[in-house]
Amino acid sequence: MPYHEIQVRPMREELTRLGVKELRTIEDVDAVFANPTGTQLVFVNSVCGCAAGGARPALAMALAASKVRPDELYSVFAGQDLDATARMRSYFADYEPSSPSIALLKDGEVVHFIHRYMIEGRHPQQLAADLVTALETWCSGNQQLTASS
User: Fold this and answer.
1) Is 139 a catalytic residue?
2) Which of 20-34, 40-54, 61-75 has the lowest mean pLDDT?
3) Domain boundaries, given as residue ranges, for the chain
4) Is the dihedral of CA 74, 79, 81, 85 positive or negative?
5) For 112-144, what is each residue's pLDDT tens digit?
6) CATH C-level class of 5-136
7) How far is C-alpha 36 from the chain's CA centre?
8) DSSP code of 114?
């Protein structure tokens, strides 16, 4: 049974304030990932206080610190948007389902994946540093951010 929307709204907004677009239905997911080009970061959001509570701030820190960004930023919410989450996970089926998790894709292929077990017990700053490395490795062809970006 999904969590009530009022419970997850602050967790959704923590990502949408960063420019992350929510994919809430199967149709939303398929519209984006049927023929992807460029780089996409997908955050599988979660209610889990310890892991997701550190992963969301880590994403914010990484996006602020990185010289580049993925072309597109998306999220699905495990425990809330069940069908969309299941469909999104089918696009990275080689990886065990994990909530929260972060997938970085290039032209639809997963190039970097962060499982929940890689998030738990780590400080957001540590996770942010790992994300910056992944972004700067895989999104290096993207437009460089400037001071006004």
Assistant:
1) no
2) 40-54
3) 5-136
4) positive
5) 999 999 999 999 999 999 999 999 999 976 555
6) alpha beta
7) 16
8) E
pLDDT, position 5 = 84
Q: How many CB atoms lie within 10 A of CB 139?
A: 22
CB neighbours of 134 closer than 8 A, spacing ≥ 6? Answer: 104, 111, 112
Quote the pTM value: 0.91
Contact 106, 138 (CB under 8 A): yes
Tokens matching residue 97: 């389902």
Tokens of 89: 């996970």
Within the chain, strands assigned E span 21-22, 39-45, 72-77, 101-106, 109-114
**Does 48 participate in catalysis according to the annotation?**
yes
Residue type, 137: T
Give the strands of the sheet with 39-45, arranged side by side.
21-22, 72-77, 39-45, 101-106, 109-114
Q: Which of 32, 48, 103, 104 is catalytic?
A: 48
Catalytic residue among 31, 50, 64, 145: 50
